[in-house]
Amino acid sequence: MRVLFTLRGATGHLHPLVPLAQAAREAGHEVAFAMPPSFQDTVERLGFQWVSAGFEDSSPEYVRILEQRNRLSGLERRTSYRRSHATVLGPRMVSDLLRICDHWRPNVIVRDTQDYGSCVAAEMLGIPHAAHEAVAFAASMKLDMAEPIAGLRAAHGLPPDPELRMLERYLVLSPFPPAVNGLERTAIGIT
Questions:
Q1: Domain ranges in the chain?
Q2: In CATH, what class is 2-188?
Q3: Which residues are within 8 A (CB) of 109 and not within 5 positions of it... i.e. 6 or more apart?
Q4: What span, in angstroms and rounded, lies between the C-alpha atoms of 97 and 113?
Q5: Where are the alpha helices (DSSP H) in 34-138?
Q6: What is the pLDDT of residues 50-62, one digit of tens each?
Q7: For the segment 73-118, what is each residue's pLDDT rounded down to a tens digit?
Q8: What pTM value is reported for the model?
Q9: What separation in angstroms does the CA of 156 have from each of 19, 53, 150?
Q10: CB neighbour list of residue 84: distance below 8 Å, 6 or more residues apart
């Protein structure tokens, strides 16, 4: 089986996925990471295949996100930054993953919970996808993300998903107890 791990260029989101990727490889699965080019050496040094996907932190698109965020304060600042994961980073990841999956053909995608583009690409291609939480998920975040995720889905021809079931459709891997996240995960057996 081929397992594609996807995430934006963030060391703090990469390292929690490494033990899972190592376990998949040790079980005989082929593993690759789809990340920005600045992570190629790190991923390959860990012994995994790397494929280019997403924006570099220094890219004009990502710098624009940070500049916009820095002009805001408090809750607006956090909400704007979160939403940009779907409105700016999401479309790029969708197009990169459609290209990657056209020739690498993963059986499953393991994505960072903030990687909405991978979720949309997986849904478009009918590939199961698991979400991995590197940071605690606030229940209110789901409300903040409803509109931008709906736009990302619509832009790629997916039907509406007002309850955002796509985000947790298959599996959510979380090191955090449900009380921290404020979510019930009994639907997938995590309590």
A1: 2-188
A2: alpha beta
A3: 3, 4, 5, 6, 97, 118, 121, 122, 127, 128, 129, 130
A4: 16
A5: 40-45, 60-70, 74-87, 89-104, 116-125
A6: 999 987 777 777 7
A7: 777 766 666 666 766 788 899 999 999 999 999 999 999 888 899 9
A8: 0.84
A9: 32, 18, 10
A10: 65, 68, 69
